[in-house]
Amino acid sequence: MGRTVKALLVALLGSVVVVAGGTGAATAESGWWVPTSTPSPESEVNATGEPRRGTTPDGDVSGYIDAHTHMFMDLGMGGNAVCGSTFSEKGIADALKDCDRHGVSILENLTNEAAGRGILDRHDTVGWPTFKDWPTYSSFTHQQMYYKWVERAWRGGQRVMVNDMVSNPGLCPILGIVAGPNKYSCDDMDTVRRQIQATYDLQDFVDRQYGGAGKGWYRVVKTPEQARQVVADGKLAVVLGVEVSEPFGCKQVLGAPQCTKADIDAGLDELKGKGVASMFLCHKFDNALCGVRYDESTAGLLVNAGQFLTTGTWWNPKTCKEGEIADNTVIGGVLPSQIASVPGLPAVLPLYPKGPHCNPRGLTELGEYALRGMIKRNMIVELDHMSAKAAGRALDVLEAEAYPGAVSSHDWMAEPYMDRLYALGGFATQYGHTATEFADQWRETKPLRDKYGVAYGYGTDMNGFGGTASPPSDAAKISYPFTGRDGTVFDRQVTGERTWDYNAEGVPHYGLVPDWIESLRVLAGSAIVDDLAAGSESYLRTWGATTAFAPGANLARDAIASASSVERNLLTDLRPGRAIDGKASTRWASRWGQDDAWLQVEFLSARPVRKVTIEWEKAYARQYRVQTSLDGKTWRDVDVVGTGNGGLDTVTLDRPVSARFVRMQGVERATSYGYSIKELGVFS
Predict the structure, then answer these.
(1) Domain boundary residue among 517, 548, 579?
(2) pLDDT at residue 20 greater than cutoff 50
(3) Which residue stretches, if any, does this entry annotate as coiled coil (predicted)?
(4) Which of 46, 342, 428, 468 is the most exposed place for a label (fewest CB within 10 A)?
């Protein structure tokens, strides 16, 4: 949710009448892809031609992927964030009806900068059938993902869509005041359950139009195998994700966590049981699991206010030290008077040190427990929105496990981590910018993707208060009608009395995603479209490797540990065996002042060694060697680490080495103490 979340919102933050054939362009063709009965009246799709089915000669699926959407934001944040529903059993006139109490909308006027309205100015609230003032690319408070508009994107070649359940506990109560009263609970997990149910309800709604269960184009999938079959059938595979600020109730209040490990286990089990494939551990606010990557500028000021309301703490950015990966720079200042009047908010935010800013809050103990819980359940970890410190630690854990299930879905992960993401086998998509910006970023990032053989995708963040593509430059304008990559012919999209033209309006709703892709083709040729069409295959490979993942056996658990020395401590046991007992709460420590101290493990017989992991305590090595031996006398350096920074180190060898002994040989200490290791792992 929300790449450039603006003004207030961002911050605080079966009785259908059916007739044969439907309306408008829907009557012009027939085939398996055309419904046998539709509500009447209904939006047009304005697409002609059979969607592509099957696979390539190599067995790969083909189709575009949107890895970050919010189809049911109208059911989030108390029900007052987005006006208009994704669908209605009563038909389009009910789903996209006039927005009650929305004529003078402080929320709309604060967030819709392009409209140029004053804070108390009115706008035309009528939806169906005229849609004079909404949806537009610049309005965040009106429905952009009506299901027929999503159908047009599917007809345009999209084959995978990740639908993230979303809400925000800071915005929800505020919207209950400025746009309320709220219709629904502000609890994040209640919202997740409500939106998941709505996703399945929409699948049933579409199925009825195509003759029964399983026959519609909108298919909710729980496994990559199901998704592959859906895409091969030419339909849209809908993947369930979660992006909320307080998953499992894991908020923090004045720094104190409000959830337990039992809450996390129960929550992950529930989500897994409902078919959720991926989730974010934190979003917008520092929670009990991790720190966030800040929003910048005015949006950041307002999101910071939302954090204060829900947690009692402001963001706490520090000036980054040399070598640290920065988060976005935060501003302090005076809140707009309309927001400062919210009970509990001071008028002035803290003053912050000079940027660049780093969030000192990383992945907490509970956050690491949740991360490892996701690995245990073979779920995809969304790294976007984590602070640079949290994302770095998460990548350390993923690398140590050789776990491929990592995704960056809409440009919110620090760019220096991208190589590590791809090296794991992960996948990334780019935010749905204007065509020119998207094409430029595609060119800039293509060499890295080519290095790993990974294709491309987009994350529109539709309905997520991040903004959609504005009208294109002259060089990116398209001609109507146009033919998509799969041969489908598109004319301007029509809903009711309203006709949308991409050249004049950009992407006001999801139905113009095919027009935006045509704009990309105009700018960058068929290469960018082909790269995007391979995106579904790349994503499903990552998801498939995630569900197939099984942790390797840690050879060190059955080994004998020894060391050059042991620190004497009257309060705890620091002997070598403590570093291979599987407990992060225990450790080995060498005697103080020894640069050449070592820790080693011995197996009963020679074993192939491919990877060594070292979880350092605060007393870590700046320089050290990883060594192997068959006899404990002759040692071979298999890796030399010269810039150690503590934390969790993973040394992966190019090929397995036969060894009976594996050793960490210290060269230079980073502290005045000795060396201290929580866990040493050795893997085949």
Answers:
(1) 548
(2) no
(3) none
(4) 342
